[in-house]
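User: tokens in, sequence out, please.
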């Protein structure tokens, strides 16, 4: 069986539906295919950018309430800024 075998592709396609993990990506020699490397780099850059986007806690709490999945609890941190929060995880969360 090879990666081009329909049974192999179907197996990985079905397994990918069960996880967000990057599995069964294929290979180009001993490395990942260029497309997969570029997609991973783009996803990583988006995640790094997302950390710095302001979070509207009130809007999220309202959305949680509106779907009836429970009462949200907002927490704060002893950090005085987002930058300090990211650099000092030891400051933790304060209810």
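Assistant: Sequence out:
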């Amino acid at each position: 069986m090879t990666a081009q075998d329909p049974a192999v592709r179907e197996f990985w396609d079905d397994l990918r539906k069960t996880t967000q993990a990057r599995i069964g990506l294929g290979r180009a020699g001993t490395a990942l295919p260029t497309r997969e490397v570029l997609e991973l780099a783009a996803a990583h850059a988006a995640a790094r950018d997302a950390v710095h986007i302001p979070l509207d806690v009130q809007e999220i709490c309202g959305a949680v309430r509106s779907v009836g999945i429970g009462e949200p609890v907002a927490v704060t941190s002893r950090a005085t800024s987002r930058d300090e929060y990211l650099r000092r995880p030891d400051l933790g969360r304060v209810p």
